[in-house]
Design brief:
- The complex is a heterodimer of chains A (269) and B (244).
- Chain A has 269 residues and is α/β, with parallel strands linked by helices.
- Chain A is built from 13 helices and eight strands.
- In chain A, a hairpin with a 6-residue loop joins strand 3 and strand 4.
- Chain A is globular and about 55 Å long.
- Helix content of chain B is 20%, strand content 27%.
- With 244 residues, chain B is of the alpha/beta class.
- Classes of the chains: A alpha/beta (269), B alpha/beta (244).
- Bound molecules: adenosine-5'-triphosphate (ATP) and magnesium ion.
- The site of magnesium ion (MG) has 4 residues of chain A, from helix 1.
C-alpha cells in the first residue's frame, strides 16, 4: 500500500516541481520504490527537471484514457532504478484529468510502489484539486513572503475540507511545511518573512527550510534533481527533509545567516 | 484503504439521478417596497460580502400574500441578482407570481419542506447555510481545526473556535464568538442584530470585528491590545475592546 504525497502550494513558481523531483529521488535513494507524477497538464516540466524529456512516449493522460498501460508510460529514472516518472501531457487540455481516472491510476500504482509523489500545478483549480484529492500527506511549499503564505493557508483549508480523506471522514491529511527559497540575509534586512513569522501564521509542522541557491538552477539545467548534488546547500536541505519525513531526527539547518557567527564574534546582538 | 478493486465498466454511465437535501438560505420578504428591500438586503450583504457572494437563495413571499400585499416578483428577483445573490427558487407565491418566476427560470418550492420547521423558529431572517454542523440547532458550534484563508463559518448560536483563525476568513455567529487562538480574519457576532453578543479572543489581530452590524476595521484597532486576551462588546452602539 503506497503512501501518496502531494506537493502543493496554491501560488505558482514557489518550487513545487523542484521539490517533487528532489524528494521523489531522495525516497528512492533510501530504498523505497517511488513514482512521481506530473499533474501540470499542458505545462509539463517535471520531465525536464528529471532529465527524461526525450524518453516520454506515453503520458498520464494516455494511461487515464486507456491508450497506454501504466508499464508503458512509467519512465525509469536514469540515476536510480527504484524511481519512476509519469509525465504530464503537453498537448491535452486540463479537462482530460478525471477524478475517476486519476483514482484508478493511483490505485494501480499503489499495488507496486511505496511512495507516490504528486507534483501539483499552481492554483486551486481542477489539476491542483485532483493532485491533492487522494493524498495521505501534503508537503505545502511556501516562500517566505506574504502572498505565498496566504495562498498556502488557503490550500490548507482546501486540504482539510475537500480531500477524499475529509469527504470520507477519515484521519485528515498530514500536512507539512516546506519553506523554500529562504535567504537569511534578506530576512535580516526585513525583506522576507522569517521562519518564525511563517510558522506563526500557518501553525504547521516544519519539515525543513530550503535555502535560495544557485545549485537549483544548475541542477534543473542539467536535468538532475538537486538532491543528487550532495555538496550543495539545497541538495543537503532536501536530503534532511526526506530523512525527517522518514522519521530520522535531524536538526534544522539553513535558517541562520551564515555570517551570523562573525556577527556574534564582533559583538552584534 | 481501497479494498474494493472493482473494475470500472468499459462505458460508464454518463449521468445518474441522486436525491440530496441541501440547506439554502431563505429570504422572507415582508415589505413590497423595492427600495427598502434593496437597502436592507444590501446592508446584510455588506456585513459578510464573501459569504453572500453568489450564494444561492430561495425567495419566500408567503408573508406578503397572507396579508394580500402585492409584490412585483420580477423586480424583486432583479434586486436580489443585482446584489450578487443567486435566487434558485420561490415559495409561497400565487399562480401568477409562480408563472412569472418560472418564466425567469426560477423553480417553485413548496412550503412543506423540511426547512420550514427551522424557519418557523426565526421568521423573516436570512439564514445562510452553515459550513460547519451545529452541535445543536441553535446551541454552540465548536471547531477545533484552524480556519484557513478563504473559509467561512456561520453559527446559528454561539461559535467557539479552539484554533487560530487566519487572515482572509470570515466567522459569523448569531450569538457570541470565542476564539482560543489568534484571530486574524473577520469576526462578526450578533449578525441577526443581537446587540448583547460579544467576541472573546486570546490574541486580536482581526481584519474586522463587528457586533450587530457595528464594526471596526483593523486600522482602527489599537495596537496596544495585541497579544493580550480581550473581549469586545457593544456599549450604546460603540464597540468597546477591553483586556480581560
Ligand atoms: N531553493 C531555490 N533556490 C533558487 N531557485 C529556486 C529554488 N527553488 C526553486 N527555484 C527556482 O524557482 C523557479 C520555479 O521553481 P519550480 O518550477 O520548482 O516551481 P513550481 O512551484 O513547480 O512552479 P509552477 O507553479 O509553475 O509549477 C525555477 O526557476 C527554479 O529553478
Ligand atoms: Mg511546477
Amino acid at each position: 500500500m503506497a503512501r501518496i504525497i502531494v506537493v502543493t502550494s496554491g501560488k505558482g513558481g514557489v518550487g513545487k516541481t523542484t521539490t517533487s523531483a528532489a524528494i521523489a529521488m531522495g525516497l528512492a535513494k533510501k530504498g523505497h520504490k517511488t513514482a512521481v507524477i506530473d499533474f501540470d497538464v499542458g505545462l509539463r516540466n517535471l520531465d525536464l527537471i528529471m532529465g527524461c524529456e526525450r524518453r516520454v512516449v506515453y503520458d498520464f493522460i494516455n494511461v487515464i484514457n486507456g491508450e497506454a498501460s501504466l508499464n508503458q508510460a512509467l519512465i525509469k529514472d536514469k540515476n536510480c532504478n527504484l524511481l519512476y516518472i509519469l509525465a504530464a501531457s503537453q498537448t491535452r487540455d486540463k479537462d482530460a484529468l478525471s477524478q475517476e481516472g486519476v483514482g484508478k491510476v493511483l490505485e494501480d500504482l499503489s499495488k507496486d510502489f511505496k511512495y507516490i509523489v504528486c507534483d501539483s500545478p499552481a492554483g486551486i483549480e481542477r489539476g491542483a484539486h485532483l493532485a491533492m484529492y487522494f493524498a495521505d500527506d501534503a508537503f505545502v511549499v511556501t516562500n517566505p513572503e506574504v502572498s505565498s503564505v496566504r495562498d498556502s493557508d488557503r490550500m490548507l483549508g482546501i486540504l482539510s475540507s475537500k480531500s477524499r480523506r475529509a469527504e470520507q471522514n477519515k484521519e485528515p491529511i498530514k500536512e507539512y511545511l516546506l519553506l523554500t527559497r529562504y535567504s537569511p540575509e534578506r530576512v535580516k534586512l526585513g525583506e522576507m518573512l522569517s521562519v518564525d513569522d511563517v510558522q506563526e501564521i500557518l501553525s504547521l509542522h516544519l519539515l525543513g527550510v530550503i535555502p535560495e541557491s544557485k545549485s537549483v538552477l544548475n541542477a534543473s539545467n542539467s536535468g538532475i534533481p538537486v538532491i543528487l548534488d550532495e555538496k550543495s546547500d539545497a541538495g543537503q536541505a532536501y536530503a534532511d527533509i526526506v530523512a525527517r519525513y522518514l522519521g530520522e531526527n535531524k536538526p534544522h539547518r539553513f535558517i541562520d545567516d551564515k555570517k551570523g557567527f562573525f556577527g556574534k564574534l564582533f559583538g552584534g546582538k | 484503504m481501497s479494498q474494493d478493486a472493482q473494475k470500472t465498466p468499459y462505458n460508464p454511465p454518463a449521468l445518474e439521478f441522486k436525491s440530496s437535501t441541501f440547506s439554502v438560505p431563505v429570504l422572507v420578504i415582508s415589505s413590497n417596497d423595492l427600495i427598502i428591500i434593496e437597502q436592507q438586503l444590501q446592508a446584510k450583504v455588506l456585513l459578510a460580502p464573501e459569504f453572500f457572494k453568489n450564494s444561492p437563495l430561495v425567495l419566500d413571499i408567503q408573508e406578503l400574500n397572507k396579508q394580500s400585499i402585492e409584490i412585483d416578483v420580477v423586480a424583486v428577483i432583479e434586486v436580489i441578482r443585482k446584489l450578487g445573490l443567486l435566487p434558485i427558487g420561490i415559495r409561497g407565491g400565487d399562480a401568477l407570481q409562480n408563472e412569472k418566476a418560472i418564466a425567469l427560470g426560477i423553480p417553485l418550492h413548496s412550503i412543506h419542506t423540511s426547512s420550514t420547521t427551522i424557519d418557523a423558529k426565526k421568521p423573516k431572517t436570512l439564514t445562510p447555510e452553515p459550513e460547519t454542523k451545529d452541535l445543536l440547532q441553535t446551541g454552540t458550534t465548536v471547531i477545533t481545526q484552524p480556519i484557513r484563508s478563504g473559509q467561512r463559518v456561520y453559527a446559528a448560536g454561539d461559535l467557539v473556535i479552539i484554533a487560530q483563525v487566519s487572515a482572509g476568513t470570515e466567522i459569523l455567529a448569531e450569538g457570541n464568538i470565542h476564539v482560543y487562538g489568534t484571530l486574524r480574519g473577520r469576526a462578526l457576532a450578533g449578525v441577526q442584530g443581537n446587540t448583547e453578543a460579544r467576541i472573546f479572543c486570546t490574541d486580536l489581530q482581526a481584519e474586522l470585528i463587528s457586533i450587530a452590524g457595528n464594526y471596526k476595521i483593523s486600522e482602527d484597532l489599537n495596537p496596544s491590545i495585541r497579544n493580550t486576551p480581550v473581549q469586545i462588546y457593544l456599549d450604546k452602539q460603540t464597540l468597546v475592546i477591553k483586556e480581560i
